[in-house]
Amino acid sequence: MSHSTLSSLKTALREQLTLFQKQQNDRTSPIGRFYMNNQKKFLQYVRELEQLFNQEDEDIFTKVFIGATVKIVYLEEEDEETYTICFPEEADPDQGKISFLSPIGNQLLLEMRGNSIDLDIPGGKTAVKISEIHYLEK
Predict the structure, then answer these.
(1) In this structure, how many other beta carbons lie within 10 angstroms of the beta carbon of residue 129?
(2) Whole-angstrom Cα distance, residue 20 to residue 35?
(3) Cα angle at 91 between 117 and 65, to 5 degrees?
(4) Boundaries of each Transcription elongation factor GreA/GreB C-terminal domain copy (predicted)?
(5) Mean pLDDT of 24-33
(6) Among 11, 14, 38, which residue's Cα sits nearest to residue 24?
(7) For a designed S-S bond to 1, which of 11, 17, 58, 128 qualifies (C-beta 3.0 to 4.6 A apart)?
(8) Beta strands 116-121; 68-74: pairing state
(9) What pLDDT, in 10s, does the model give residues 82-132?
(10) Other CB atoms within 10 Å distance of the CB of residue 25
(11) Cβ(86)–Cβ(70) under 8 Å?
(12) Contact between residue 125 and residue 76 where contact means Cβ atoms under 8 Å apart
């Protein structure tokens, strides 16, 4: 990953941090509702974004933040799916874009590449492995 790509990704994430901080108490915004319903995860997300800006290498992008494209492998079926975690207004499930507020998006948020987790889905829990995380330049 080039220095300019790393820099542009950090800029996008810095903008997210600013937006999160401005809207955390606005109950009419998706970010405010996320804060009200899941304060612990919200604060962890903000804290990890803040820590991210002090790191210099591309290994910082081994964790799922908003804007990540994540490939998961269903361990029982060995099937794969790819999702891009986005803000609610950008969500388009038919295109694989899911909101960070959606049940799956929320569960993937802050997970690391290589982690295996049990996703809660309508049919119950299913074991998945996060096999890839990518960030695209905007």
Answers:
(1) 15
(2) 9
(3) 45
(4) 63-135
(5) 84
(6) 38
(7) 58
(8) unpaired
(9) 999 999 899 999 999 999 999 999 999 999 999 999 999 888 999 999 999
(10) 11
(11) no
(12) no
Q: What letter represents residue 133's amino acid?
A: I
Cα-Cα-Cα-Cα dihedral sign, residues 75, 111, 115, 118: negative
Q: Which domain holds residue 12?
A: 3-135
The model's confidence at residue 59, banded by pLDDT at 50, 70 and 90, is low
Q: Which amino acid is at 12?
A: A
How far is it, in rounded angstroms, from Cα 45 to Cα 49? 6
- pLDDT for 112: 95
94-103 CB contacts, 8 Å cutoff, 24+ apart = 99/30, 100/34, 100/66, 101/30, 101/33, 101/34
Q: How many domains does the chain have?
A: 1
User: Residue 121 has which token pair?
Assistant: 């889905």
Taking the C-alpha atoms of residue 83 and residue 104, their distance in angstroms, rounded to an integer, is 9
